[in-house]
Specification:
Blueprint: H1 9-15, H2 29-33, H3 45-53, H4 56-61, H5 73-77, H6 84-99, H7 104-110, H8 112-133, H9 144-147, H10 150-180, H11 190-195, H12 197-206, H13 219-244, H14 247-250, H15 261-286, H16 297-322, H17 325-349, H18 353-380
Helix pairs in contact: 1-6, 6-7, 7-8, 8-17, 10-17, 10-18, 12-18, 13-15, 15-16, 16-17
Length: 386
């Protein structure tokens, strides 16, 4: 079957951040120095070639962009300064915009105005809801659950979680359809989808491949980056679980002792988020490492919203312990508004979606490997495993 060429693909990738594609002459040096290219994937070279020749359909079927963890070794060693690492990052942004059937991801990545407007729309909408639908304002003591009844907030959290899951899962389904729908993938036995689940869980929880990335820069540097990322991830996952699944336990007017798990878990999430967002923001500001030299508006918005969510959450706790009712209520409203903006805009459509697509891509690779193994066994006449 003939390959359809997209003459606009080259320019599209430039809009998503791959601005130096013209400099690449496909020498293959990027693949030679990549510590993750030993698994049969010839990235970044193959992806650079697909971008240059406009092979949009083959790019859509490709899983390689998600196997890159952006250490920057390829860009550092590129003899032409073509910056293949940023081209891979731009490709991931482009693919996210293709997976997203709503078209919102594309607008957020290509327009800072859209990004800011979407965030402000959510923030002011939540503040507006609080302005007309809050509970009684008690001023002689802090009564947060009177001002914002926990069952109201819990219902809103569960509703939002369901909506966000719908967008994420439907976009992930499109990703799987394209990657596994490639003509080169044999028929997949249903059991492969179940047997490959541990691959997703382990990589989702640990991002372990990142520790193999960037060997040109030294193990210590790469381990530090991996640990910083893992701490940040653990912080926002802890926060997400607390506000969506355990809100009745976490949002209470009872002040527990400092050693109580309720306070300890909350303080851990806050500390992890503050450390992670500050470390990554400093890196992006200083631009010393290859990974931080090029930042899109969505990168900064992700860190800013997460940082402000953490600061306002700590503010609620401080004002509550100090016994300042009005400061507690106002800060809580802003905290939920910023948190909602981060969840609604960033999780299904923006920067956070990388966190799902990376391990999901590895899951799909495992499914494909199992399908290929089953096909070989059929050809050799090996009985199928029970």
């Amino acid at each position: 079957m003939a390959t359809r060429v997209n003459l606009d693909l080259h320019d599209e990738l430039k809009a998503f951040g791959g601005k130096d594609l013209d400099l690449c002459y496909n020498c293959g040096n990027c693949t030679a120095v990549c510590s993750l290219a030993d698994d049969g994937g010839s990235f970044p070279r193959r992806i650079m070639h697909l971008l240059q020749v406009g092979a949009g359909e083959r790019l859509r079927h490709s899983v390689e962009p998600w196997l890159c963890y952006y250490c920057g070794d390829c860009s550092t060693q590129c003899p032409r300064g073509a910056n293949p690492a940023e081209a891979m990052m731009a490709t991931r942004r482009y693919l996210i915009s293709r997976y997203d059937w709503t078209g919102l991801s594309r607008r957020l990545y290509l327009s800072n105005a859209w990004n800011i407007a979407a965030v402000l729309l959510v923030i002011f909408s939540v503040l507006g809801i609080f302005g007309v639908a809050h509970g009684p304002v008690v001023l002689d003591h802090v009564a947060l659950n009177t001002f914002a009844p926990v069952h109201w907030i819990e219902f809103a959290d569960l509703l939002m979680g369901g909506v966000l899951s719908f967008f994420l899962l439907t976009n992930a389904a499109r990703m799987a359809y394209w990657i596994l729908g490639d003509q080169g993938v044999p028929r997949i036995p249903p059991s492969a989808f179940v047997k490959a689940v541990p691959e997703f869980v382990v990589n989702f929880a640990t991002q372990k491949r990142w520790r193999r990335c960037g060997t040109q820069q030294g193990d210590a540097t790469q381990n530090r980056r991996w640990l910083t990322h893992l701490i940040l991830v653990s912080g926002y996952l802890t926060m997400f679980v607390l506000i969506v699944l355990f809100l009745k336990w976490f949002q209470t007017d009872t002040v527990y002792p400092i050693y109580n798990p309720q306070r300890f878990v909350g303080y851990y999430a806050a500390a992890a988020l503050l450390y992670g967002t500050t470390a990554f923001a400093i890196g992006r500001w200083q631009k010393r490492d290859e990974i931080h030299k090029f930042s899109a508006g969505t990168d900064w918005m992700f860190l800013l919203l997460l940082f402000l969510t953490t600061v306002t959450g700590l503010g609620v706790n401080v004002f509550r312990l100090a016994g300042w009712p009005m400061a507690t209520y106002v800060t809580y409203a802003f905290h939920l508004a910023i948190d909602a903006a981060w969840l609604i805009v960033q999780v299904p459509f923006g920067k956070w979606s990388h966190f799902l697509y990376r391990p999901f891509a590895l899951y799909l690779v495992k499914v494909r490997e199992m399908a290929e193994q089953a096909a070989r066994e059929r050809e050799e006449g090996v009985p199928a495993a029970a």
